[in-house]
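ok so I'm stuck.
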Amino acid sequence: MNKIYNWGILAPGNIARKFALELNEVPNARIYAVGSRNTERARNFAEEFGAEKYYSRYEDLAADPEVDIIYIASPHSFHLEHAKLCLENHKAVLCEKALALNLREAKEIITCAKENNSFFMEAMMVPQQPSYQEAKRLIDSGIMGKIKYIQGWFGFNKAPYDLSLRLMNPSLGGGALLDIGLYPLFDVLYFLGSPKNILADAELTSTGVDQTVSVRMEYGEGITASVFASFMSASGVGTDILCEKGVLRLRRMNAVDQWLDINIPGQEVKHLTWKTPECGLKQEALEAMKCLGEGKKESEKMPQSLSISLMTVLDEIRKQTGVYYPGRD
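replied:
not stuck anymore, here's the structure
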């Protein structure tokens, strides 16, 4: 019989609600406790998702001995504080992206996980999804030949943007890069690894954060990648992988609506889709619980080294574009 894992939800906002809706579909997962600095919000979330307990202090959630694993859904400017709180209470942690505001903080979190012998994984959706796993399988098999170029993008048009929002606040890690740009950047790292060279440019707001960012990543021997992210362009989200023998096109409307097109010259385009239960944020939870069941402290699908590689690239892009987080950089 599969162990039932008691989940704690830290910071019950919009992304936590999406995660909880899917988590309730997982048979061996139980939303046991919720923590928020707002008691009413914690109570309402607990009632909506059937949690047994709710707390108005994150410290109480982290200290609850019945909680097996905590999903951290607070803004990334708080991840260092909240992850260390949970890990120092010897809780397994699944932490929303971006992992932290910078590489130094990311390393501090992972060091804390190792020192406390606790499981830790960044909640990056991409490597858990069947569309990406199939694309990776095709590339690794040699069917597509070598990758020559990757183009990834994520954008939506919210102009004129409210400069008072968190996403426009540098003190809270605002900007397109850490909110949506890390997705296409992760795609490039997932398929090509870390680049030899990075060239980045951005359009900044009056608050000093990026509302549009463009990145070129160079790998040598003519292999490159380009990434675009923007709050000012209705581009949607997608990644094209141009290989020697064809093109792979990854698309999604949301976490559970995704597809992969395989375009090889001389062959009919293959359009692959997956059923809802195979996709979504719940795959992150399933991977985390699988690791816990096997006694692992990190995921092979989303290793901590990949989180470090992503944060290294994010730091370099911010350095080149002049985006700084006061008191944290």
